[in-house]
Specification:
Oligomer: single chain
CATH architecture of the largest domain: Alpha-Beta Complex
Largest sheet: 7 strands, mixed
CATH topology of the largest domain: Spore Coat Polysaccharide Biosynthesis Protein SpsA, Chain A
Structural class: alpha/beta
Strand content: 5-15%
Number of helices: 13
CATH superfamily of the largest domain: Spore Coat Polysaccharide Biosynthesis Protein SpsA, Chain A
Order of helices and strands: HEHEHEHEEHEEHEHHEEHHHHH
Distance between the termini: 44 Å
Number of strands: 10
Helix content: 40-55%
Length: 363
């Protein structure tokens, strides 16, 4: 019982620190002299069979207020009309390269794009995302002001009508809020390749540490390596820097995505990343264990189960409310409650599944 209470207290303190960290980050405003930069920018996008999503991401990149950037898109052996769409889009950009991937997988595609980039600052996003008009301008302004080795920027899920997508958005934003909060405490633990910027020179220096034996995780392994070297990592808190992505269409796709994210966790070496991951897994395992104990021994464990559920629910809601206005969240209490009903079961399931089965491919 002492161990259980210790896990609960550690989790509560961790989330409260994330909330504090979020408010420690200053909001960023764009510099009016953004066109006068002493570095070049390359936007790198890897894609595979994205004919349905490419028009949106390409249009949003075409609409950028800052036009002086290089766009590199790497086609990872697509079998649909991806290649045709990309080649047709070249006419809309002053500097666009379309590369055919030599190897297989997203990590290899990104490697090829980054190596061929002429920019000093690399910005990555995904082919199924949409960026706002001032996205590049905001990142460039932030880099000009702070000269970071890595910039972690916000990602949000587009508003959709289904209940599953709304619950999924709450789950996703809790991860993004934790990412930002940890960064605000100068202990970055997560990042998302859908909205990430870093110096090309620094990436080349760290390339041997990026675990190229593992198909995914290019973003987290880079973060982990940069932390080890004491590089400058900051979070960009600006609405114009948000990248929007879609929710997964069904539960199977959702679990597949989360399994892919969790599959690389055994290779983590950063103690802060490991502690946070183990804390989330531990309290989820405690909730699952207490749930089954309450079924078997109702009178002895029911009150404890309800109390544990309530405490975790309220602290999770507090984290979401701290970022409510920034991410324009709605009905947090309801969707967070619905998520809480199955969250510990899916965390434990995904964790066990990722340990005992092979990692799922990117596409």
């Amino acid at each position: 019982m002492i161990i259980i209470f210790a896990i609960i207290i550690i989790y509560l303190l961790m989330v409260l620190l994330f909330i504090l960290g979020w408010f420690q980050i200053e909001s960023h405003a764009v510099n009016d002299n953004i066109e006068k930069l002493d570095f070049k920018i390359s936007v790198v996008v890897a894609c595979k069979n994205e004919e349905n999503n490419l028009p949106a991401i390409l249009q949003s990149l075409e609409n950028q207020t800052f036009a002086n950037f290089e766009l590199i898109v790497i086609d990872d052996h697509s079998t649909d009309d991806t290649e045709m769409i990309l080649n047709n889009a070249k006419a809309n950009f002053a500097n666009m390269k379309v590369l055919a991937a030599n190897g297989n997988g997203k990590k290899n595609a990104l490697y090829q794009g980054i190596v061929n980039a002429t920019g000093n600052l690399i910005i990555t996003t995904d082919a199924d995302c949409v960026v706002l008009p001032k996205w590049i301008e905001t990142i460039a302004s932030f880099q000009e002001k702070y000269d970071c080795d890595m910039i972690i920027s916000p990602v949000n899920i587009t508003d959709e009508k289904s209940l599953f997508s709304k619950i999924q958005k709450i789950d996703f934003i809790s991860l993004i809020a934790s990412t930002a909060g940890a960064c605000g405490l100068n202990m970055p633990i997560m990042c998302n390749g859908a909205n990430l910027a870093f110096k090309k020179a620094v990436w080349l220096e760290q390339f041997s540490e990026l675990r190229n034996d593992i198909p995914s995780g290019d973003d987290i392994f880079l973060l982990q390596s940069l932390k080890k070297e004491g590089k400058k990592i900051k979070y960009l808190k600006a609405n114009d820097a948000i990248v929007y992505t879609k929710a997964t269409s069904n539960l199977r796709s959702f679990l597949k995505q989360r399994k892919r994210w969790a599959g690389k966790s055994p290779a983590y070496t950063d103690w802060q990343i490991i502690v946070v991951a183990l804390t989330v897994l531990s309290i989820s395992a405690v909730q699952v264990g207490v749930f089954f104990l309450a079924i078997v021994q109702f009178e002895q464990w029911y009150s404890f189960f309800v109390g544990l559920f309530a405490v975790k629910y309220f602290v999770d809601v507090a984290l979401l409310y701290s970022v409510k206005h920034f991410f324009k969240l709605k009905n947090i209490a309801l969707y967070s409650f619905l998520l809480s009903l199955f969250y510990p079961f899916y965390i434990v399931t995904v964790a066990l599944n990722s340990l005992f089965t092979k990692e799922i491919k990117w596409k």
